[in-house]
Amino acid sequence: MADEVKTPEVETKKADEKATEKASESPVTKDWEAEYKKLVAENEKLKKANTNASKDASEWKAKYRETQDSATREKEERDEELARILEENTALKKAQTLATHKAGWLSLGFNDELAADAATASVNGDFTALMATMKKFLTVHDKEINAANIRSMPAPVSGGGYQGITQEQFDNMSYREMAQLYTEQPEVFAKFTGKS
Asked: Which of 182, 138, 51, 130 is nearest to 116 (CA)?
């Protein structure tokens, strides 16, 4: 090895090898490796203990069920059945209450969707949602009323008159329409009211 030439690369390689050897011999590295192995072994022990505990618990529960007298077992079964029935009863009462409230909202003129929303909000005690639903209803209702009023308004006769209206049409006129009829055609107004 006398012929070996010393170059910076060779020197760096040798220094790295020495550092790796020292690091693997370092007590800190050995401690970490030992600690890791110890933790892995302890983790395995805990997994086995957990599995055994679950198995023991189910065995004890089975033994407990076997040792119970029939009266105690029947009482527990009745209690479980009662809890199930109470839960079902609560759900049915809520559904019945919703249906009753929805029917009430439908009778007030709400459409099916708005009635369902209003019923849900009223049953749940959600005042904000109830007011929002009522606002939607009033908007739709007002539009329907205005459309109905426009459809029922008598068409003016050529020349702007109301000559061909019926008593029913007159009765459904708004105050503004009646005032216009009174000023434009007092004889037609007098015909329906008996006043001039």
From this structure: 130
